[in-house]
Fold this sequence. Notes:
By secondary structure, the protein is α/β, with parallel strands linked by helices.
Amino acid sequence: MNLYPQEIEVKLSFDKVKEIISENCLGPLGEEFVDKLNFSTRTDRVNEWLSQTREFMSILTSSAGFPAASYEDVSPFLKQAEVPGSFLDTEQLHEIKAVIQTLGNINLFFKENGDDYPVLFWRLGHIEVDAHLLRALESKIDEKGELRDDASPELMRIRSAISKCQTRARTAVNKILKSAGGHGYTPEGATLTIRDGRLVIPVLAEHKRHVKGFVHDESATGQTVYLEPAEALEINNELRELKYAERREIIRILTELTDLVRLNQEDIARGLRMLGVLDFIQAKARFGIAFDCVCPEVGKKQNIEWKQARHPILEQALKEQGRQIKALDILLTPSDHILLVSGPNAGGKSVCLKTIGLIQYMVQCGVPVSVSEESKFGMFHSIFIDIGDEQSIENDLSTYSSHLTNMKFFLENTNGKTLFLIDEFGTGTEPQFGGAIAEVVLMELCQSRAFGAITTHYGNLKKLADKTKGIVNAAMKYDVKKLEPLYELEIGKPGSSFALEIAGKIGLDKQMLERAKKKAGVSHVQFDRMLSELESEKNQIDKLKKEVEAKDKRLSDAIKDYQDLKKFLDKKKNEVLKEAKQEAARVIEASNKKVESTIKQIQEAKADKKRVQQAREQLTQHKEKLSKESVKPEEKLVKAVDQNIEVGDKVKILSSGAAGEVVSIKGNQVELTLGGLTSRVKLKDIEKISSKQFKKSTEDRVKQMTGIDLNSKMANFNMTLDIRGVRAEEAIGKVENYIDEALLLGYPEVKILHGKGHGVLRDLVRNVLRENPKVLRATDEHIERGGAGITVVSLDE
């Protein structure tokens, strides 16, 4: 036996995981496979299951656009068709047609995308049904599941005759109804009606002999009879014969189609099984996406190295209460293969145990698991758990006796490939003896090299773990000051039960607590107090460590900013000096020319005092002009650095062209609002623009596109813009330019692929689109074609 006890799935809440997966199935075919979902110890099989789910998660979160599928179970119809001479009705054949169409679409999808999804292609990419059957069904049954008029020449002829016959009958009966109404033989507002498939007119009972014909029915009061006029009798008889002929032709066509279904029965049945597998895989993929799960690669050796592990069922329950789950980092290796978890009651010890059991069980069933990507998984050949009260009235077993029965099973069956989980180890009897037995059992389990996790309050077990190789202490962290659990697992040290502290918080009398301390014994109280103090000091050290790390990061950022600013200033300095030298040369040259011109004027004036005085005044004015126009290199440098940018100014990011408004300025860092979000950029990377430029940035970009080759642009235009992994500032520019281009080319709808992640890039895109008056709406893509990972943008044409 590799699983213990028999109800292990219920104890680990795996039954609830199966319920959620089943709810994600699109039909009964997938639900059957969920019921068969089982624990496997074959590494190759588990990895194949996980790879299939991983690939389908990729399909659902990408823009690949998996074809819409029909997952109806038509196997009862196939069974019915086995009888020669039988026929299926149009609705049944319509459902079979939908299934065959689905198989064909899926087959085509994997043929076109087989390289991207090799595992699914190998498993599901070769489902084919005879194309002749699909053509026959499509040619005879329409999209509403009704037999087409042109399903056969004979049916078309019959239905045409029926239509003409109905027109003749209606014309004749209408004529009689009008005549009878004129004589007052019919009730007020009387119209044609049908009884027993024949056209009749309502006639007042007292006048029924005035109209020749046959009575087919009468009203509940008997005041009105429904009469078939004699003139319409022959036409109605002809119509009934045509209806019989139509029915015979329909049966012949349906029988012919059913015979084709019978010939392809095995292929359709095989396709149904594949559809069930596909529905099951997509349901697991939807579960994985909903709970932020991964599909890891499972190794053959036994190992648990999990980061950010979360119990999915508990996480869902907490979300409904508006609370957030605390993820756990769990480590079990061949050198430290048993985890002894201690800590206060209601501190999360049992949840930790169940999280370990559920996630390992899920992964060995091929179900995505709620851990981070860097987690590593191993394969266990057996999982044994002892969780909860196992008291049995039928077997006359107390809780402790049940625990001992479980321990006996564990000791007889555990080995190096076993994962065992024991909750509240040794409880249920006198602590002195319970602790001693638990210590002996723990040593035996350790020597078996089995992997496991145990929760306990016993101090002797904590001491044993501290000095025994293979067993490692762990504690559920606790806020000593607030006396509140933190639900975080810390490996490497034991935890205190905080029994006396919790009792004090509840309000028990202090004198009673002092007496309890004496009863517990000095050594026990001192040990627990030491753990309590250690926990408090550890929490403070962690807090100080985080503060130091934050300061180090700010210091590193400041140093980097300084280095960037210095580099920028050095570059600007060289540019300004070079420009200043060039300007000085121009000034000297201009001055020389002016002096030469003045001397020439003086010489030509032949010492005329008035002319000489005018020339000197012109030279003085030129000198003053040069003095005003000259700018020192340092002033140019300052101007180049700050550009006189102030809070509230409109600026443009040079790299992307995105426009924003300055919120604050700190050193050489500027904080901008871009598309509803805040972003930081360097002063050197922006340029001041006017409010008019800021408001009309979208129109300006559209205008800049005039003059391009629109035919070429339209041919190369991609209906989906991929901005995954792009920085926020660059993404804004890309989205704005893309929308402008789509508007110019006249596209009514485009898509922006930003991925899901934490939703930051999605929110940025939505804010940018919201500010564009040409955007009518921005919605999530259909869940089967990417969901929240893609935004569908509808544009004003």
